[in-house]
Amino acid sequence: MKIFILTFLIVAAQAIRFQVNAPKTNSSCLLLDINGSLEVKATDNVKNKTSKTVDFANATLDEVNSTCEVIKLTFNKLVEVWFQFNNISNSEWIVTPGVQFNAKSFLDLENDTVSAFAAPLPAFQQNNSYYCKAIVSYNFTSKEKFNSTYEIVAQLSGFQIQSYKNDSFEPAYECDQDKTSTTSTALTSTPTPATTTAPSYKDDLSCWDSKTNTTKFRLEATFALTINYEAKDGNKTKAATANIDVPSNVTANVSCSEDREESLKILFLPGWDLEYIFQRTKDNNTYFVSNIILTYSTSAFKDAAVNETLQVNYTSAKSNYLQAEKQSYYYSCKSNTSVSLGQNVTLYTSNLRYQAFNEKGNITFSGDATECSEDEETNSVVPIAVGAALAGLVVIVLIAYLIGRRRSRKSGYESV
């Protein structure tokens, strides 16, 4: 059985509503609020990788194949996503998400027709709606065999659905995640200076190999972004800047099965992800960050002149970015640092610690570490300052001694 990873990132405040009408009465019988993006990643049989992202803002309702018990959305007839209602009792629904696409048409790969399904949503009363504001992950699986390997992971947030004869949502069944989730994502159009940026995200992200009982990599950090974009200004456009704090309630896709490359992808706003790719050096003596990739959608900015999905990529030119001194060392950088991911995007990090390609046991960040140059400069300030203070104190004591001795001699002469 292959596991697929499809990404839906949804924010309820910007949800797009789709409505299915009953054929005879033409009145509403199914409602869906959804927003975000869908990403499909594939690896063919010669290890070539490709991915494609589509935005739910561009989805259309398949009116022909949607009924009062299934709603189908299409993206330019290349990808189809649906939510199927099934009656499990006289009073309860369960809803099963599904996806289908042709790999040749959508990804320019071999002619696979991929269909996959996620686990059903929790059962809820037929006269209610189902609502989940929190980000929830779903794995899609298929029993079919394909020419390529596909990763499809679903993430839904601010998601609401019902199959009931009403043009507005009925009282909602609240998902378990909403009962414990209290955090939200802040997005403003005010730039944050590099000297005062205070990223809000703090978590550790790791990849566990159950076969060897080993944490292959682990990362702790805080992240924030500053993005320049074109905003609407009447009939014209103007330059604008948005500051985005990566929120605390994120999920991540991790990969640590390959010998020379590991990856971490943090998923947050609709259509947004931040990916770190770790690589070994050619001599296998240590490791470094080879790429930092940000995929983002300007639809998150309410005044954006154009809604589009963009990708920027920082590539380490000399294979030494965030490089640990030895394979057994972890890399540490407490200082607030920044890196340009592209002409319009700056990533800020602080309290960064990571170790990759670990070969045994857990990663505790308790051994030897390679410090970034910014921390070394900060650490050198203290001994220099202490040394200067001590030197100054010695000079003061010496001057005081000389003055005291001179006065003592003068007092002796006067007494004679």
Write the layout of secondary structure elements.
Layout: E1 2-4, E2 16-21, E3 28-34, E4 37-43, E5 49-55, E6 60-61, E7 70-75, E8 79-87, E9 92-102, H1 103-107, E10 113-117, E11 124-125, E12 129-132, E13 136-142, E14 149-151, E15 153-156, E16 159-162, E17 172-174, H2 176-180, E18 187-188, E19 203-209, E20 214-233, E21 236-245, E22 251-255, E23 261-267, E24 273-280, E25 287-297, E26 309-315, E27 330-333, E28 337-342, E29 345-355, E30 369-371, H3 373-415
Parallel strand pairs: 12-17, 27-30
Antiparallel strand pairs: 1-13, 2-3, 3-16, 4-5, 4-14, 6-7, 7-8, 8-9, 9-10, 9-11, 12-16, 13-15, 18-21, 19-20, 20-21, 20-29, 22-23, 23-24, 24-25, 25-26, 27-29, 28-29
Structural class: mainly beta
Shape: elongated
Rg computed from alpha carbons, rounded to a whole number of angstroms: 29 Å
Major sheet, described briefly?
A: 8 strands, mixed
Instruction: Tell me the fraction of residues in β-strands, as a range.
Output: over 45%
> Unreliable runs, pLDDT <50, ≥5 residues?
1-13, 181-203
Output the number of helix runs: 3
Q: Estimate the mean pLDDT confidence.
A: 81
The N- to C-terminal Cα distance equals 108 Å
Total number of β-strand segments? 30
DSSP helix fraction: 10-25%
